[in-house]
User: Which sequence fits this backbone?
């Protein structure tokens, strides 16, 4: 009996450690930034993060929308802390003359230091970067069709210095980088005048 109890507790512990958290934004008040998130930006400008209704949302009715203009608008989940695992989001590029980008960030140390993987509907590519002291540097990119006005799925798996980027269910990038080894927060990202919507934000350990 004791052996069975210990085995049960071990399974429970593993389940807890490997569990994923999903944020659908559906229970948040519209017209304001989501509580428990740091709605900010890297660089200059004025990002505008708010919960809005969208009938096309993967999980109705609400989405997280960025409609301001800044160097790199970021929205960071305050209570997250992850070293190895994954981060995933559904996003829809809506508008933007300079950019129509949506991305996820991980191992976030602060608003100026983190990893990014993003897809851009104006450039039709997916790229992975590190941002150090506010300076963004790409270390791998692939050309692929990213359609504006359509919901896409973007996921990054990360373990140590190894990263795998999955776009709409297909692995498009394998990359390595040594910039940030420690655990950090996770969140979402856009660029410049991108109007982008996000839904079903999920993260967890592998």
Assistant:
């Amino acid at each position: 009996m004791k052996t069975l109890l210990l085995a049960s507790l071990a399974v429970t512990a593993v389940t807890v450690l490997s569990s994923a958290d999903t944020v659908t934004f559906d229970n948040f008040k519209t017209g304001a930034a989501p509580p428990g998130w740091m709605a900010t930006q890297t660089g200059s400008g004025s990002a505008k993060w708010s919960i809005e209704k969208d009938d096309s949302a993967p999980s109705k009715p609400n989405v997280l929308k960025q409609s301001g203009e800044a160097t790199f608008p970021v929205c960071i989940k305050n209570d997250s802390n992850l070293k190895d695992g994954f981060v995933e989001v559904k996003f829809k590029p809506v508008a933007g003359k300079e950019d129509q980008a949506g991305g996820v960030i991980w191992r976030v140390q602060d608003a100026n230091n983190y990893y990014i993987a993003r897809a851009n509907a104006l450039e039709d590519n997916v790229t992975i970067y590190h941002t150090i002291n506010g300076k963004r540097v790409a270390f791998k990119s692939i050309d692929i069709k990213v359609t504006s006005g359509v919901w896409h799925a973007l996921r990054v798996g990360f373990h140590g210095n190894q990263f795998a980027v999955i776009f709409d269910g297909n692995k498009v990038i394998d990359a390595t980088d040594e910039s940030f080894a420690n655990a950090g927060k996770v969140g979402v990202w856009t660029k410049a005048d991108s109007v982008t919507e996000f839904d079903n934000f999920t993260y967890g350990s592998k």
